[in-house]
Amino acid sequence: MRIAVIGAGSVGRHLATALARAGHDVVVGVRDPDDPRHADLARRATPADAVAGAEVVALAVPAAAVADALAGLTLRPPAVVVDATNAVGAPPPGGFATMGALTRSLVPDDVPVVKAFNTIGAEHLVAPVVDAMPAFLPVAGDRAGVDVVVPIARSLGFDAVDLGGPDAVPLVEDHARMWIHLMRNGWGRGFAFAVVGAPAGDDR
Ligand SMILES: NC(=O)c1ccc[n+]([C@@H]2O[C@H](COP(=O)([O-])OP(=O)(O)OC[C@H]3O[C@@H](n4cnc5c(N)ncnc54)[C@H](OP(=O)(O)O)[C@@H]3O)[C@@H](O)[C@H]2O)c1
């Protein structure tokens, strides 16, 4: 798929690498494509150029930058927005309960918004198999978008789980908080969560 990753920090770079390895056509959107820090990115463009024609737009910017990052983008169907952000150390901006709700408010109604890729250390995006088990990756949001993003996450090697609609987005953000809590309390960054056993009706 044609995928634009907005942000060239830890998440943006690892996600872009993983998606390209999985065979997707990836462009990284950066504010200044001429910035020497981005010289190693094989395919980079301004965020506005990166999203043009993209089927999926992955948002990998700090919570405080989400509104600014989305303001300059023209998003229209059939694009799907994937929100990989977390509010860490401060509530989501604008009084929203979740980053997902903030992102949803800033994207046109007819463009699906999905929460994913936020629940694990960025480096795992290129190494989703830990101790021979694929890491659990919850995905939730607008149905048409979840149906696009779950197969993409599986193409990266994750045990991507369809958590459901927008009501399940807070669960995804809570799951990220649990990973961060453990990471900061002695677990380090090398661990991942995994599902053991087969859920009823398992189609994975
Ligand atoms: N780090 C993790 O392990 C991890 C894991 C899961 C989720 N997350 C979440 O993912 C998001 C990104 O995290 P990160 O660790 O990748 O952050 P980061 O390393 O600080 O990188 C953030 C990137 O966002 C770009 N950016 C900032 N404002 C922007 C704007 N207005 N428009 C376009 N790009 C903008 C920055 O560009 P410049 O370089 O030009 O400043 C930078 O490349 C955060 O919400 C974080 O909570 C992080």
If you compute it from the alpha carbons, what radius of gyration comes out, rounded to the nearest whole angstrom? 16 Å
Structural category is alpha/beta
Q: Ligands bound here?
A: NADP nicotinamide-adenine-dinucleotide phosphate
| Beta-strand residue fraction | 15-25%
CATH superfamily: NAD(P)-binding Rossmann-like Domain
CA-to-CA gap between the ends? Answer: 21 Å
- Could you say what the CATH architecture is? 3-Layer(aba) Sandwich
Number of helices: 6
**Low-confidence parts:** none
Mean pLDDT: 97
Largest sheet: 8 strands, mixed
Concise overview:
This protein is an alpha/beta fold. Helices cover 31% and strands 19% of the residues.
Walk me through what this model shows.
- There is one protein chain.
- Helix content is 31%, strand content 19%.
- It is an alpha/beta fold and 204 residues long.
- It has one domain: Rossmann fold (3-Layer(aba) Sandwich), CATH 3.40.50.
- The radius of gyration is 16 Å and the shape is globular.
- The mean pLDDT is 97.
- It binds NADP nicotinamide-adenine-dinucleotide phosphate.
- The site of NADP nicotinamide-adenine-dinucleotide phosphate has 24 residues, from helix 1 and helix 3.
Secondary-structure blueprint of this entry?
Blueprint: E1 2-6, H1 10-21, E2 25-29, E3 44-45, H2 47-51, E4 56-59, H3 66-71, E5 80-83, H4 99-106, E6 113-115, E7 129-130, E8 133-134, E9 136-141, H5 143-155, E10 159-164, H6 169-187
Parallel strand pairs: 1-2, 1-4, 2-3, 4-5, 5-6, 9-10
Antiparallel strand pairs: 6-9, 7-8
Bound molecules: NADP nicotinamide-adenine-dinucleotide phosphate.
